[in-house]
Fold:
Amino acid sequence: QVQLVESGGGLVQAGGSLRLSCAASGHTINDYAMAWFRQNPGNEREFVATISQYEDKYYIGSAKDRFTISRDNAKNTVYLQMDSLKPEDTALYLCAAGTKWYAPRPDDFSSWGQGTQVTVSS
Structure:
């Protein structure tokens, strides 16, 4: 079992950038596909991006030209670089570890962090 802790969220103006970090402990992330999801109160958890053990990447359409997911196995950390942020990107962003990197759903992931809040003002 791997423990995940997110950081890097905050308040940013539309068009700005943030880099989220997901620090893992208890197990190497090399054994997992890693993903970012986001969620707002009352809404379903939404997939954002994932990266496989072999650097394969998958994004939702609204993110692929603006967000970049990466992993640094030596640091046991996953990142989400978020550029050209829009108000609709506002959400709690959660990191997850699982088995599926392509077209994933929340049930494909067994370990979750508590999330970091991203708020984009207009």
In short: The chain has a mean pLDDT of 96. The CA atoms of residues 30 and 91 lie 27 Å apart.
